[in-house]
Amino acid sequence: MTASQIRFDSRVAVITGAGGGLGKTYALELARRGAKIVVNDLGGAVDGAGGSSSAADACVAEIKAAGGQAIASYDTVSTPEGGNAIIARALEAFGQVDIVINNAGILRDKSFAKLEPKDLEAVLDVHLRGAFHVSQPAFRAMKDRNYGRFLFTSSAAGIFGNFGQANYGAAKMGLVGLSNVLAVEGARNNIKSNVIAPIARTRMTEQLLGPLATLLDPEQVTPIACYLVSEECPYTHEIFSVGGGRFARVFVGLARGWVAGKGTRPAVEDVRDHMADIMSTEGFSVPASINDEMQVLMTALK
Ligand code: NAI
């Protein structure tokens, strides 16, 4: 390790779903680097059923045994009351909140034709509404101190699509939208927000990864998660695919497109005849907000 080691001394990190899997690796690593940790975990099954304090407690015990500082939180992320309680726990115990890693998650996989409304609700509640409920009180506290780092956990299942995960994919892509807006709204207050789409062997995926599983340690995701919530991270409004020691930017690009011309009313056939231009990715840009897209449109219509 060099002199420019990344440290988190005096930082307070809330990590949801940190009783096991990926979240626990973030908690252990951030604590090792000096952060005070709120280890939140409801302690239920992969499908969200049940609950127990043992997962969060075990992670806290491990951090303390290694000389770090941590407290447990057993509240669910999936209600406004739960989200408020999780952030209140950080504020009461440590006086501030600098980092939120929205990581809690469950699965209710079924093909789209067979999905029931309750499978949609349960998954949206934990992933999308959960991240909203935890992040909102944290965002308010961060704004007051002009500092904050958010990390959201998306998935290739939403960003790229996967059979049998309509509920999960929708929730996971929703988190990209949430992070993008926090990046825009937080910019003035040094609040940064990014997304990772991890691939790792955990209890959630051990049945799904096949022979690749042995190559996909959760600890291989940990370094980018920690970097993205560090003070020195200049990035915001980004998405990264990470797994097995590979780290790659994922981006939403805007193609140059076809411009029918200012004031024209193109016909359906005009669109058909210009699909090659509309589809071309040559000269694309990566807008950092809706304003960037409006700028592209204004230039095109000049
Ligand atoms: P995991 O099942 O080990 O971790 C999820 C944790 O969230 C569990 O400890 C669980 O008790 C907790 N949790 C569930 N509902 C909760 C609630 N309502 N409130 C508080 N805690 C709750 O699985 P893993 O793989 O570590 O998942 C972490 C995140 O990464 C999840 O958001 C998952 O969707 C995401 N992810 C994981 C991938 C992988 O390859 N492992 C792939 C893509 C995304």
Describe the structure.
This protein is α/β, with parallel strands linked by helices and 302 residues long. The protein has 2 domains: 12-250, Rossmann fold, CATH 3.40.50.720; 253-302, Helix Hairpins (Orthogonal Bundle). The protein is built from 10 helices and 8 strands. The chain has helices spanning 21-32, 54-65, 80-94, 117-145, 156-161, 166-186, 222-228, 268-273, 275-279, 290-300, and strands at 12-16, 36-40, 69-73, 99-102, 148-153, 191-198, 238-243, 246-250. Strand 4 (99-102), helix 4 and strand 5 form a beta-alpha-beta unit. Helix 1 (21-32) packs across helix 7 (222-228) and helix 3 (80-94) packs parallel to helix 4 (117-145). The mean pLDDT is 97. It binds 1,4-dihydronicotinamide adenine dinucleotide. 1,4-dihydronicotinamide adenine dinucleotide is lined by residues 16-17, 19-23, 40-44, 46, 48, 55, 76-78, 103-106, 126, 130, 153, 155, 198-200, 202-205.
